[in-house]
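Translate sequence into structure tokens.
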Amino acid sequence: MSDKKAPFIPEFFKKKNSPSKRTFVPGWIAQSSPGEKRDAYNPIQDKPFILKGGQCIIPYKGIFQVDLKIQDGIILSTGHNLSDENATTIDLGGKYISPGIIDPHVHLGIFTPFDTEIVTETRSALLNGVTTIGLYLGGEESYLQKLDDIIRKIESSSLTDIFIHLVILTREQLEEIPSYYSKYGITSFKTYMCGIPGLIPSVEDDFLMDLMEKVASLGDNAILNIHAENHRIVNRATSRLRKAEPDPDSLKTW
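Result follows.
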């Protein structure tokens, strides 16, 4: 059985004679395989594009029907009735144009190899308008031993921009936080007051307070994400439920 997970592509994307004429599917979706590198396609072209008639979402301003002129991945101008005889014009009437979406909470490489998912999952994200993801990295070893390799894989294979959150579970990792910041610019960290038995350890309050102080020492731009459940209360409740229903099979019990 293969350990590679094929990207999800809806059936109507695969049909050449799809009645959905307005569905745009980049050629690289159909042509590339799950493990292929991102240099298999090049979305940036010298020729400009004009996107006409779309409802443009402008952050903090509102939604406006405007045309956009784009070249080399940059919005050159916005306005009404834009034209350029050298440009490719795409009619987006009835559709919305949004800025690149940021998904701040993504896990890669847990059930499928990281080298595969750094391509398949970022490709899926991009198809759905997500251009930046926040990648959570976990484990109980020093991240200094693997960050260079992970960043190299991101730079060579990811189809989206990526920023990193580091899960801090050990004293070694806690003491290395200034190095994660100074060497890699990482300012986002995570820990678990209640972990997952056999997979993620729970941290105690003294560790949590030391971690808060260490992250705070990096300055106002640093942040600590906390799974804020009390593991002793969770264990107590879990034990009671297991005694009452040894083989639970309902969502209510879960």
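Note: The chain has a mean pLDDT of 85.
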